[in-house]
Amino acid sequence: MAHVTGDRILELTTSTGQGDLTLAGAVAYYRPFSDVAANGDTVHYLISDVDAVGRQNGGWELGRGTVQSGALQRTTVVASSNAGAKVDFGSGNKNVSLTVLAPTTSAVRGDWRGMIGALAKGGDDLTGALNYAAEVDVASATTVDLAAVASNNVRITGTTPVTALGTLPAGARRRIRFAGILQLTHNATSLIMLGGGSITTAANDVADFLSLGGGNWRMTSFTREATEMVVKEPAIAAGTAAQYWRGDKTWQTLNKAAVALSNVDNTSDAAKPVSTATQTALNAKATLNGSANFSYVGVTGHIDVNDYAYIAYYVQANYGLRWNAGAANALNPIGYQVSGQYRYVPIGDFGSHGDVSTYAAYHQPAVESFVQFNIGGSGNYFRFGNDGVGRSNGGWTTHSDRRVKEDIEPIVDALAKLAQLTGCTFVRPDMKPYDGPAPRRAGLIAQQLLRVLPEAITVPRDYDVEADTGGLLSVEALGVVSLLVAGINELRAEVRALKDAQ
Question: Considering the domain boundaries, does residue 78 fall inside one?
Answer without folding.
Answer: yes
